[in-house]
């Protein structure tokens, strides 16, 4: 493949509702849209790092810097044929997973379009509708949380995930179970507990949760294995799994029973595919996590979700859950029974609304090969 140029755009998209977790708040999403150009067309990728380094160490600004100074020069200088080879080449740069995922994603889309096929068929995905869940941020007001969850259940979402942290776990769960009974419910702690909280986390067993996501520190698969010995709720890892190597170790140690795969967190689609394959071999169910992405990132996540190991509803929700107007058309929508239909067109299968993209752009730079 030969890129003629790459355009980076930082876009600002106002969120319908600010998204609050134990470690931060996203109000206006700052994302980087990567446009990979060749003679045959444009491919789109997204860098979905948050504006502050609380989920991972990356931010919108560090990603821009690393793309500009290191990743784009590598992609222009070296010879490579396919997206997978580009991904291998980018491994020379340590970490900076979200920056890499944005560039690799744009190239996957371009490659599929150049070959007149959809990204889903390129990945050997099944064209089935994807079961959809929703991730609800922290609402300090309990009644408000209960109401918001009720709205999402009514829309048809197949499972609800709420964020918890020490001091905010038993109470919201009790309220939700009292009001709505035994619906598919899970929690995400974003690494806010320690092993000293094991007994307290064990007391959440009685809520019959599908899983607890990332209760302990990002770099601690040992304590997660110890915690899983004590609690009945299956542990799902998010932050701890940044590569297929880490996934293998976590599975072998018994640190988790389920894995949340995010293309951004693991450094690109190639690594996500490797993790999916490993999990299939080890019979570990996976689901696709989200990063409050625009339609571009969401389209990539949907393509990944078409693979057979994605047996659990993910955090890939409808465009309208996040945005007044998304940058792709058609927007991602939810069916009444809680599924997202997969697109069939070439590449990502959605059109990017160029005028809206331009309107949302706050910074733009062009890099010619
Ligand atoms: O921990 O899964 C997470 C959003 C940003 C960063 C981390 C996480 C999340 C979410 C929301 O839970 C997922 C989404 O709806 O896109
Ligand atoms: Mg998470």
Structure description:
With 369 residues, the chain is α/β, with parallel strands linked by helices. The chain folds into two domains: 5-116 and 351-368, Enolase-like, domain 1 (2-Layer Sandwich), CATH 3.30.390.10; 121-341, Enolase-like C-terminal domain (TIM Barrel). The protein has 13 helices and 15 strands. The protein has helices at 60-77, 83-90, 97-114, 119-122, 142-155, 170-180, 198-202, 221-230, 244-253, 263-266, 269-281, 295-305, 354-360; strands at residues 5-21, 24-38, 41-47, 130-131, 134-136, 160-163, 185-188, 212-213, 235-237, 258-261, 286-288, 328-329, 339-340, 351-352, 361-368. Strands 5-6-7-8-9-10-11 form a seven-stranded parallel sheet. α1 (60-77) crosses α3 (97-114), α2 (83-90) runs antiparallel to α3 and α5 (142-155) crosses α6 (170-180). The radius of gyration is 20 Å and the shape is globular. 2-succinylbenzoate binds next to loops.
- Terminus-to-terminus distance: 12 Å
Number of helical elements? 13
* CATH homologous superfamily label of the largest domain: Enolase-like C-terminal domain
The CATH topology of the largest domain comes to: TIM Barrel
Question: What is the number of beta strands?
Answer: 15
**Percentage of residues in DSSP E strands:** 15-25%
Keywords:
single chain, 369 residues, alpha/beta, Enolase-like, domain 1, TIM Barrel, 2 domains, seven-stranded parallel sheet, four-stranded antiparallel sheet, 13 helices, 15 strands, globular, binds 2-succinylbenzoate, binds magnesium ion
């Amino acid at each position: 493949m030969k890129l003629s140029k790459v355009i980076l755009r930082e876009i600002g998209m106002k969120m319908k509702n600010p998204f609050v977790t134990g470690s931060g708040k996203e109000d206006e999403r700052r994302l980087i849209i990567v446009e990979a150009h060749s003679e045959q067309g444009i491919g789109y990728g997204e860098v979905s790092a948050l504006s502050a380094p609380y989920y991972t160490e990356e931010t919108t600004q560090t990603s821009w810097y690393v793309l500009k100074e290191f990743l784009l020069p590598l992609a222009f200088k070296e010879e490579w044929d396919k997206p997978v080879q580009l991904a291998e080449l980018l491994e020379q740069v340590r970490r900076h997973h979200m920056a890499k995922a944005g560039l690799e994603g744009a190239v996957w889309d371009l490659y599929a379009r150049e070959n007149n096929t959809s990204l889903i068929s390129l990945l050997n995905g099944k064209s089935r509708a994807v079961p959809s869940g929703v991730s609800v941020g922290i609402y300090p007001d309990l009644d408000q949380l209960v109401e918001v969850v009720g709205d999402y259940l009514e829309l048809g979402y197949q499972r609800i995930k709420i964020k918890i942290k020490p001091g905010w776990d038993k109470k919201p769960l009790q309220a939700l179970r009292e009001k709505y009974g035994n619906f598919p419910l899970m929690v995400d702690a974003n690494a806010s507990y320690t092993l000293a909280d094991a007994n307290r986390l064990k007391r959440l067993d009685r809520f019959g949760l599908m899983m607890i996501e990332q209760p302990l520190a990002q770099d601690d698969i040992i304590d997660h294995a110890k915690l899983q010995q004590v609690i009945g709720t299956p542990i799902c890892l998010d932050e701890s799994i940044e590569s297929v190597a880490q996934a293998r170790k976590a599975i072998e140690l018994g640190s988790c029973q389920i894995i949340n795969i995010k293309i951004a967190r693991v450094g690109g689609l190639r690594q996500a595919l490797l993790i999916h394959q490993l999990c299939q071999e080890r019979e570990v169910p996976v689901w696709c996590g989200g990063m409050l992405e625009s339609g571009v990132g969401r389209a990539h996540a949907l393509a990944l979700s078409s693979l057979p190991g994605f047996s659990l509803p993910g955090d890939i929700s409808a465009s309208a859950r996040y945005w007044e107007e998304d940058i792709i058309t058609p927007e991602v929508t939810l069916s009444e029974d809680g599924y997202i239909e997969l697109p069939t067109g070439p590449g990502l299968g959605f059109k990017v609304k160029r005028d809206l993209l331009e309107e949302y752009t706050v910074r733009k730079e062009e890099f010619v090969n």
